[in-house]
Write a structure and sequence with these properties.
CATH superfamily of one domain: Ribosomal protein L13
Number of helices: 6
CATH architecture of one domain: Alpha-Beta Complex
Radius of gyration: 17 Å
Shape: globular
Strand content: 15-25%
CATH class of one domain: Alpha Beta
CATH topology of one domain: Ribosomal Protein L13p, Chain: A
Structural class: alpha/beta
Helix content: 25-40%
Largest sheet: 4 strands, parallel
Strand order of the largest sheet: 5-2-1-6
Distance between the termini: 31 Å
Length: 146
């Protein structure tokens, strides 16, 4: 790989990481998640390499205002396990939105990233907030169109 030595990090070699912001109000959940995963992986950059984490940070605001198409609001089930025997539990999307809306977008994006160490490293660059405010104003995030 040209321009990258072993003692440099990816950020040093390729000019750092940018910050993007996505407003979830009125956006379709799956389409937005696909674009967010694209940016987290770094596929929008000419320096993309599938084995490196060259992606950017993404801040999602208004996570509770994403839209589900069709009958998914009543039919889609978010499963989780309590850790006890027979402890499988599920919440339909309507109740999940009230209970923990950030988890809807987190799960959608996480499923689109690579599995293993690389995917876990990429998902850490995703910051999700229910309301319109976020603590990352100092990074001056640019708007990401979805």
């Amino acid at each position: 790989m040209r321009g990258f030595t072993s003692h440099q990090t990816v950020e040093q070699a390729y000019g750092g990481r940018a910050w993007f912001i996505v407003d979830g109000e009125g956006k379709v959940l799956g389409r937005a998640a696909s674009k967010i995963a694209h940016v987290l992986r770094g596929k929008h950059k000419p320096t993309y390499s599938p084995h490196l984490d060259g992606g950017d940070f993404v801040v999602v605001v208004n996570a509770d205002k994403f839209v589900l198409t069709g009958a998914k609001e009543e039919d889609k089930v978010y499963w989780h396990h309590t850790g006890f025997v027979g402890g499988i539990k599920g919440l339909i999307a309507r109740r999940q939105r009230v209970h923990k809306a950030e988890d809807m977008i987190y799960r959608a994006v996480k499923g689109m990233l690579p599995k293993g160490r690389l995917g876990r490293q990429m998902i850490r660059k995703l910051k999700i907030y229910n309301g319109p405010s976020h603590p990352h104003a100092a990074q001056t995030p640019k708007a990401l169109e979805v």
